[in-house]
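User: Sequence in, structure out. Go.
Assistant: Echoing your sequence, followed by the structure tokens.
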Amino acid sequence: MTPRITLATATRVVQQLRHDPRTIALMLVVPSLLMALLWWVYDGGPLFDQIGPALLAIFPFLVMFLVTSIATLRERTSGTLERLLSMPTGKLDFLLGYALAFGVVALVQALITSTVAVALLDMQAAGPTWVLIAVAVFDALLGVALGLFVSAFASTEFQVVQFMPALILPQFLLCGLLVPRDQLPDVLEAISNVLPLSYAVDAMTEVRANADPAVWAEISVVLAFSVALLALGAATLRRRTP
């Protein structure tokens, strides 16, 4: 890995995003619109305060997964990745550059979505707002890492979408949002214990319930999954799509 090349890759990705307003809207605006829709569904009542923080983790995770996986796949199918890897750029430089660029977007996304939820939709959380934002950022980064990993196995954008019910939906069902994880059947609880989104939702639940939330253990697990997925992505990334 070369920091200069990684930074140059991140800069190139950010410049590309600047010329794609639809993608920017998808990443920065859609999570806030989904939170507003949820607030409207529950009429801003206690149920919104109960599940809102958890969905504040899930929505950015989902959006960043989708955008990152498709954007990386396009780099490979267009031949850009093959040209880059024929130069000094390594696979890890490429993936870390993407992670850095989309990490900046994830930070902005978390700031916007959390501000909308807390300031405009009056979502109640006992913990500090900055902790809420920090957890949302790490959850979005998890979506980036998973998207980069999945892009190595997809040949078309349609295949990327097919990964969603295989990788995202089970995590959504078992993360504790619908049923507390300790009330799941033993086998499903064991599965949920090895799914990263479970720890993201646990962290948001802790922020919602406690004024002094202890979330760093959960964040550490989410970060460890992100690093592992980036490493696996570097090991499995193909130069081009057959």
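User: And one key feature?
Assistant: Residues 3-236 form one domain.
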